[in-house]
Design brief:
The chain is 37% helix and 40% strand. By secondary structure, the protein is of the alpha+beta class. The chain is globular. The chain starts with a helix and ends with a helix.
């Protein structure tokens, strides 16, 4: 019995640093997502570029009033060129699921997007990130754009 307890305590002691590293990586990954939204709100195209790998793909599925779904593909960099100072944009996520494996991460979360202070749509955001030279960078961004899903998603 003492051997079992000793083994369990040793295992917990070894797991502690790994759990701390994972918690830090999780916080760092979510910080990049938060910075992405802050840059959007400020219409800061350079910040978007700095947070992303070159030619980071974007994919959006927009739910149309007629029930069809329109698929659009672009890059973060192309979208950043259209960020210009226009209407106020604000996006927030909640209950993010963060998956980590070494230098790779994914964030999946429901979101709400407001344009000029008014709820415009909700959906699911998916961010793919890679750790490059110690920094987390966006490697792909996908989302659904669902004007009627806000109540369902808990906005």
């Amino acid at each position: 019995m003492k051997r079992l307890i000793a083994t369990a305590l040793l295992s917990l002691g070894l797991a502690g640093p790994a759990l701390a590293d994972e918690a830090k990586d999780r916080a760092d990954v979510l910080a990049v997502v938060d910075q992405f939204f802050a840059a959007m709100a400020k219409h800061d195209a350079q910040a978007w570029a700095d947070l992303s790998l070159p030619d980071t793909p974007t994919t959006v599925q927009s739910f149309q009033p007629d029930g069809t779904v329109k698929l659009r593909r672009s890059t973060v960099q192309a979208m950043a060129a259209n960020l210009g100072a226009g209407q106020a944009m604000n996006e927030r996520i909640w209950k993010p699921t963060v998956l980590l494996r070494g230098p790779m991460a994914m964030v999946w979360a429901p979101y709400e997007f407001k344009l000029a202070g008014q709820q415009h749509h909700c959906g699911i955001d998916v961010f793919h990130l890679m750790q490059v030279d110690g920094a987390w960078k966006l490697s792909a961004v996908s989302w659904t754009q669902e004007p009627k899903a806000c109540a369902e998603l808990g906005a």
